[in-house]
Amino acid sequence: MAKLERFYNTFQPDHYDVFIDINRAEKTINGKTTITGNANDPQIAINQKNLQVTSVQADGQELDFNIDNDAEAVRITLPQTGKVTFTVTYNTKLTDSMMGIYPSYYEVDGEKKQIIGTQFETTFARQAFPCVDEPEAKATFSLAIKFDEHPGETIIANMPEDHVENGIHYFGPTVRMSTYLVAFAFGELQSKITETKGGVKVGVFATKAHQPKELDFALDIAKRAIEFYEDFYQTPYPLPHSWQLALPDFSAGAMENWGLVTYREAYLLLDPDNTSLEMKQLVATVITHELAHQWFGDLVTMKWWDDLWLNESFANMMEYVAVDALQPDWHIWELFQTSEAPMALQRDATDGVQSVHVDVNNPAEIDALFDGAIVYAKGSRMLVMVRALLGDKALREGLKNYFAAHKYSNATGADLWKALGDASGLNIGKIMNSWLEQPGYPVVTAKINDDGDLVLSQKQFFIGDGKDVDRQWQIPLNSNYDEAPQIMAEQKINLGNYQTLRDKNSQPFRLNIGNNSHFIVKYDDTLLNDILDHADELDPITQRQLLQDLRLLAQGQQVSYASLIPLLKQFKDSTSAIVNAELYQIANSLKMFAKPDSPAEQELRQFFDLLSKDQVKRLGWLPKDGESNDDQLTRPYILSASLFARNNDSITQAHQIFTENQDKLESLSADIRGLVLKNEVQNFGSAELFDKLIKAYQQTADASFKQDLRMAIPNTTDPALIAKVVSYFENADIIKPQDLRAWYRGLLANQAGQQAAWNWLRDEWQWLNDTVGGDMEFATFITVTAGVFHTPERLNEFTDFFEPKLNTPGLTREIKMDISVIESKVNLINQEQTAVNDAIAQQ
Hints:
- The protein is of the alpha+beta class.
- The strands form 8 sheets. The chain has an 8-stranded mixed sheet with strand order 5-4-8-2-1-11-14-13, with no helix packed on it.
- A hairpin with a 4-residue loop joins strand 19 and strand 20.
- Helix 3 packs across helix 7 and helix 7 crosses helix 8.
- It is globular, with a radius of gyration of 28 Å.
- It starts with 10 loop residues before the first strand and ends with a helix.
């Protein structure tokens, strides 16, 4: 295992002059980097990866150096300590790894083209130029870029272009920042540019494969988001521009490079005339997430990767704060309840999960830190708790002071807690460290004891086997009874006589109002029935929360899974999208209890028809002018359920919609397009249809349409076509590596295609490792596999394949957890299958 060295301890860079010459035709990079900084020792090291260093010079003299590839370093002997300036000359290859400097491929009118972009987080700047590639090693950067340029090309970077000389594009020096935030891109780009009230230029850039109108939505959101953040943070945006760039090939969702934010095309560009509300919300939250980082992460950066949550958790919360201010009619915090909350609660209940704050002992572990369910989702829930405790006034005052104290520098979690504590008078660090440093979360049991008293107790909640080590949390209870304390720090508390409390408060006892605290509640039968008897009086978030907590308790085998089934009928006519989202999450989980093509599965399909038919009748297949946001967001859930139920009317109607639009599929309403295509593939599939959809997938530049096709095509049941899909997995002209996981998961979730997909993963693991290994998305191929598997046979095969890889740096935790995930489902099915299927049959 590679030793983790911190090069910043011996050499602190102050400024980089970075010259890079890129030849796309020959796929070569030649570079010269001059670094000025302070050396504490004549023996220093700077990072490099896959660079062929040809010389290191200072004052025209050659310096001794050696390459240490294991440490990804150039070790240099300097003539003296103190302030030094030296120049490293090198060359390297332009690769297709989507890391470092890399090409993105696209087509315009059948002609293949490429643009060059960068991705330097986490430790990929060292693949582009030699540097101290650590967050703490902030410096200023002057970029000079040369490339095999032709007329009509545009080049952009963190800062504005200063001048062009001899074909070299020189950019103004940046402010002090970390290496992983350096960015540039060039190619045939179109753009739209506006300006904020404060004079910041805001632009959206994309290839010319897109319609100009696809840039408009992002431009509006980005401009208003910067204006909102300047006001909320009470700190000006510190750069002259904020460019948003859509890259055709991009591994992550987006990246907060300072002044030049990069995105997957699907998360920046959209057709304003035909995009679902759900996709608009997703794009808006991605943009506001990245722009939140321009302060929280870029202006002030975590000192080391163990505090990654400082960047990501905060940006994840702020994306919702911002969109709620920009588009209040969207009720965006409801999206938080259907995305961040369940994702965090699900993963954080598996024993072995990482805590939000994680020590990093090996370079390969850095990318493994980017656990979306923990560092992003759980971390943001944690900060939502902080916001609720402080209120926005103290939060904003604390953040203003935090930015003032640490701008252009680095900070730790303790620095944030101090700033917020000073502004609020609360010991936030004491409360939050129990959430930050410990994995998992508690279930708070509320029950009436033999004496008639209402007693609360906390204990760590597990799905599957878990080792209880008596963890305790400082829990913001958020009760509707004043007798419950604001913070529950004890293992058990007695609130007094229940009947007295119930009479006084005149409403059922509830905890975690708003579902903003990171715990679930297990009510005893008396308390639960009291709540359910008044369910119609509850707001949608509370109704959803009830179903969510009971589902998790059932997965943890603390309540019977079969007991959930009558509740689905009780809530089936809800007009709330977030209630329907949870209702159908539970309903879809029932599929694992019914063997394919069995009588139990047929009864489950009938149950789905019972749940969905009245809603299908109410909403219909096609969106209506003026309908509510809830109706727009609910329609896909109930139509999907109706198709699973094999409802003849729905199958026929979807087929009719397809037939009427088969020559203009892209213009089909984005709200239902994916389901119409999926229905056609499943029920009316043919080789001709398959080829037509694959061709459309290759040719369209509409990311939303591409996503619908990607969802539909893997549902084919034809063995020959399944084999064809698998043959495309390694053909980047058809399936880009960035999209491969979605295709793989789609085929794996298709009973007819599961074996072929699973065989491919095992047979081609080395190819997959060579293609996307070392990237933060790589381990998620394991995650999505465990998400689908639930039988003893698949558990054994999964374990046999992945256990030998347990010592692979960056994969160890994921493999251990995912074995537990599948084991917990196998055990749950073994315990509950008969009861669940009997309960479904009785509906």
